[in-house]
Amino acid sequence: MRQKIVAGNWKMNKLFHEAEDLVSEIANELEDHEPDCEVIICTPAVFLEMTSDYADESQIKTAAQNVSQYTSGAYTGEISAEMLASMEIGYCVIGHSERRKYFGETDELLAEKTERLLENNIKPIFCIGEVLEEREASKHFEVVESQISKGLFNLNKEEFSNIILAYEPVWAIGTGKTASPQQAQEMHSFIRKLIEKKYGAETADNTSILYGGSCNAKNAKELFANADVDGGLIGGASLKADDFVKIIQSF
Ligand code: PGA
Questions:
Q1: CA-CA distance, 209 to 195, in Å (whole number)?
Q2: Opening angle at CA 30, ends 225 and 207, nearest 5
Q3: pTM
Q4: Ligand 1 center to residue 185 CA distance, Å?
């Protein structure tokens, strides 16, 4: 059966001492209340060593927010999947809408990045989701299907079994406008059917599909109660330990 997951995406927030305080507060709170789900924090690369040290001693796992499509060499400023693996980082966010929008990341590039991660036994948290105009034009299913098939469906079944998906409607990210539980369930169930068609029922059943986009301590329970919503990718609300832990406890 698939894993329930709550992942906090810190994006480009916090200074070193603030990041240290945040991860230690989360770790302390979870020590008293053991989570019923896997807890991941996706931290800026410069904090990964520190956050993964905390992770070693707690229930928390760490994820990178980006990786290079190249293996190694003269690519100034880039971080390879092999480097992440050498620090025992087990997860990496891929295809976040902010990277698609501000850094021009295409489905083809994301497919390459995904391959680099899988070669190094790092699980991609692969983000998909439509923008507002696409939803208003009723193209959301088409858009998500295209993102998944171009970004992921070149993988074989075994490779795909390492993918965590995150459905994040772009109009809900950082806007305070959450998808309704019905909208989330409808899309998650559509995604699971796509996976079933491509890889079979067992793989589909075992794939965790997270919801992201203004998910917070108030609405998490209702969203996570849906059959095909296996947790959340949390931005703003993951920057405060209390809020994040409340979301973790929403299962
Ligand atoms: P948000 O961000 O929770 O602040 O809307 C979610 C995300 O971008 O992963």
A1: 11
A2: 40
A3: 0.97
A4: 18
| pLDDT tens digits along 43-98 | 999 999 999 998 878 889 999 999 999 999 999 999 999 999 999 999 999 999 99
Which of 38, 96, 130, 134 is the catalytic position?
96
Which of the listed residues 127, 173, 219 should we mutate to test ligand 1's pocket, taking the one with most ligand atoms within 8 A of CB? 173
Task: Say if residues 176 and 199 touch (Cβ distance below 8 Å).
Answer: no
> Which domains are present in the chain?
5-248 (3.20.20.70)
Which residue stretches of the chain are H helix?
16-32, 48-56, 81-86, 97-102, 107-119, 132-136, 140-151, 157-160, 181-199, 201-206, 220-224, 241-248
